[in-house]
Amino acid sequence: MLKIVVDAMGGDNAPVEIVKGAIQSLKERNDFSLVLTGDSYLVKEELKKYKYDISRVEVVHCTEVITNDDVPTSAVRTKKDSSLVVGMKLLHDDPEVGGFVSAGSTGAVLTGGIMLVGRIKGVMRPALCPAIPNVRGSQTLLCDCGANAECKPQYLAQFGVMASAYAKAAFGVQNPRVGLLTNGTEEHKGDPLHQEAHQLLKQTDGVYFVGNVEGRDIMYGDIDVAVSDGFSGNVALKAIEGCGKTVATVLSDSLRASFSSKLGYLFVKKPIGKLKRMLDYSRMGGSVFLGLKKVVVKSHGSSKAKSICPSVVQAVDAYRNGLIDMIAQNLQTESPAEEADA
Amino acid sequence: MLKIVVDAMGGDNAPVEIVKGAIQSLKERNDFSLVLTGDSYLVKEELKKYKYDISRVEVVHCTEVITNDDVPTSAVRTKKDSSLVVGMKLLHDDPEVGGFVSAGSTGAVLTGGIMLVGRIKGVMRPALCPAIPNVRGSQTLLCDCGANAECKPQYLAQFGVMASAYAKAAFGVQNPRVGLLTNGTEEHKGDPLHQEAHQLLKQTDGVYFVGNVEGRDIMYGDIDVAVSDGFSGNVALKAIEGCGKTVATVLSDSLRASFSSKLGYLFVKKPIGKLKRMLDYSRMGGSVFLGLKKVVVKSHGSSKAKSICPSVVQAVDAYRNGLIDMIAQNLQTESPAEEADA
Q1: Arithmetic mean of pLDDT over chain A
Q2: Hey, which residues does B255 pair with through a beta bridge?
Q3: How near does any CA of chain A get to the CA of B239, in Å?
Q4: Share of chain A above pLDDT 70, in %
Q5: Mutate to test the interface with B, among A148, A237, A260, A267 (most CBs of B within 10 A)
Q6: Using CA atoms, how far apart are residues B193 and B199, in angstroms rounded to an integer?
Q7: What whole-number distance in Å separates Cα of residue B4 and Cα of residue B26?
Q8: Three-state DSSP state, B81
Q9: Does residue B299 contact residue B286 with C-beta atoms inside 8 Å?
Q10: How far apart (Å, rounded) are the C-alpha atoms in residues A93 and A89?
Q11: Cα of A201 vs its chain's centroid, Å
């Protein structure tokens, strides 16, 4: 049976919310089992709170935790008995394990992914790829959103290939429309990095490149994939996150100020709830770390159960839908950029 | 009397909305007069629609218009009788003219500003600086948001100096808190450009540098100025714009779906209106083009009267509050970066 490893100690709300979310995910999909890595005493205390099929949950004890204060590279090297390192080694070694989910340090997940899981042949730089809800009710993939602050044009072209495979495998988009995130839609816009990336993306077979897009296009839904360098992708992702939270705060405050009666709130509960759900992209799961030999999902550091559950489901589905093979295949056949890098 | 020149032919809604907004601004401030540049027949036809003190409005006839299809550099050189070039020359030549407002081509405003108005002594690169509403009900200045897609660390340090002067002059912020927009709050985050800019900003006397900030911090209001390269600043600005518009659309749609009666809408009209006003940053005017010898305000290309009016007021206030002198003075005394560039 397919196994998904969950880093039970990673993130601000570990292990309480991580275990809760992981157990919830068992109800969402029937055909997999969980491996929880972490302090077995703490994890088992949490597990006692829930009813579940015990044949579907295994706990692997580890004594260490990698925190945000650790330097990622050395932590991955030295904390060999941490929930993250043990989990990623399981992912690498055990053919039954199809995916790994962590809400721990982003740096450690990235470093561990590259060092312990390894890159798919031909991948220059793996990239973080979240799904952002858009106004059409679907999602736009933003790739890269922070794994690579410094990029070469060839990396960006490859992000387009990998994210297209992800859009097909995870969301069933037949011919994903790919835009390049820049400071204007005209072809000549941007710095030399983006100008060269534009030309490469044009030539990349199998990538349906629609040209440059702007920050606003991420949520308009006219594209399925926004390719970006990890620096500006991260800025865009967090700008959207900040705007969403600001809107939710202002709206709640002003509604509270206006509605003294419960009756009044009844009128707006449903539409406001719909908006909040739309802005709350935690329900869409985490960012998939594209380009690794196996499925790695990085959930937000502040993840609660409602984000961990879809992250596990995301890992199950990505594995089942053949994400890794699709990326490997697309890279071999579609990318002229593959050989352009040393 | 102080004169503000308005490019009556610039933007998608010229001259109708431009003239309308300019006339509205006369009511907001008493102590200035307008100079409208453009086709005098068209402009005067618009003026006929309004009641105003004719001694406060002058029309300067020009025969040409610079459009978004023009190449900015050559258009500014060759279309000498365009509303933009004539307006900027007036700004440069006439000591009574204190500011210029245009909703025309951004590229042409930037090129014209540098070629026809000129930079303050010591300014390496002028920068576009919009004010973005934040959750605290005040505003965060984002500098640069698109004038310079490629930057050097010294430019970024100077953006901090110029935007601090603007925060003081235009918004009365005594000691503006300045953050550097990057992909993480830790000091080492970002690419070499931002790592070096971080060190320079630390050493810049008179800039109250609070460290790296993320995209989400723009709307949280814990900083007054976000310094950014023009590429990622533009991405952030437009990501926020897109998120705001998406929220407004989803909210309107779901409210319409829920409220069939007018009674229901009455309950939510006020709080929703408050939110929409907050998200509608057009009411805050345009982006000031900081670093020029005179005040230039670039209003959004799709500006209607409600954006043009505050843009003109912004120009009046920036002039009256001594923005230009404050930038010149701060650059001489505060920036170690000034001499670092060729």
Answers
A1: 91
A2: none
A3: 4
A4: 93
A5: A267
A6: 10
A7: 11
A8: coil
A9: yes
A10: 6
A11: 23
**Residues in chain A closer than 8 A to B182 (CB atoms):** 231, 235
**pTM strictly above 0.90:** yes
Gap from B182 CA to chain A (nearest CA, Å): 7
The whole-number average pLDDT for the span A217-224 is: 95
Contacts 24+ apart (CB under 8 A), B319-325: B319/B2, B319/B4, B319/B98, B319/B99, B319/B295, B320/B2, B320/B31, B320/B98, B321/B169, B321/B170, B322/B169, B323/B165, B323/B166, B323/B169, B323/B170, B323/B288, B323/B295, B324/B120, B324/B292, B324/B293, B324/B294, B324/B295
Contact predicate A160/A142, CB 8 Å: no
Smallest CA-to-CA distance from A169 within A233, A71, A84, A98 is with A98
Q: Which residues contact A112 (CB under 8 A, 6 or more apart)?
A: A72, A76, A84, A85, A88
- Across A255-264, A279-288, A310-319, least confident range: A255-264
Peptide bond into A205 cis (omega under 30): no
State how far the Cα of A159 lies from the Cα of B301, in Å rounded to an integer.
32
User: In chain A, whose CA is at the least distance from the CA of B106?
Assistant: A184
Residue reference for tokens 């009511």: B27
Q: What is the ipTM of this complex?
A: 0.91
Torsion sign across C-alpha atoms A312, A317, A319, A323 = negative
Q: Are A191 and B274 an interchain contact pair (Cβ–Cβ within 8 Å)?
A: no
- Is B278 in Cβ contact with A267 (below 8 Å)? no
pLDDT along chain B (342 residues), means of 10: 97 97 97 97 97 97 94 95 98 97 95 97 96 90 95 97 94 95 90 96 94 96 97 96 86 69 63 76 84 96 94 95 94 58 42
Q: For the CA atoms of A49, A51, A52, A57, what is the dihedral angle to 10 degrees?
A: 20
**Alpha carbon A127 to chain centroid distance?**
10
- Alpha-carbon distance B6 to A76, whole Å? 60
For residue A260, give the chain B residue with the closest CA.
Answer: B267
Name the 3-class secondary structure at A126. coil
- Joined tokens for residue B211: 């460290």
CB atoms within 10 A of CB A253: 14
Distance of alpha carbon A281 from alpha carbon A304, whole angstroms: 13
The shortest C-alpha distance from A22 to chain B (Å) reads: 28
Q: Which stretch of A170-184, A239-253, B155-169 has the lowest confidence by average pLDDT?
A: A239-253
CA angle B176, B181, B185 (to 5 degrees): 95
State the best of A238, A262, A274, A287 to mutate against chain B, taking most chain B CBs within 10 Å. Answer: A238
Given a cut of 90, whether residue A128 has pLDDT beyond it is yes
Q: What is the pLDDT of residue B260?
A: 52
A339 pLDDT band, cuts 50/70/90, is very low
CB contact under 8 A, A215 and B239: yes
Beta strands in B199-267 (DSSP E): 208-213, 225-227
In chain A, DSSP assigns E strands to: 2-7, 32-38, 57-61, 97-102, 127-129, 131-133, 139-143, 177-181, 208-213, 225-227, 287-290, 295-298
Q: Give B209's strand partners.
A: B178
* Cα–Cα distance for residue pair B79/B88, rounded to 1 Å: 12
Q: Predicted confidence band at A252 (pLDDT cuts at 50, 70, 90)?
A: confident
Task: Please tell me which of the candidates A150, A183, A231 has its beta carbon nearest to residue B234.
Answer: A183
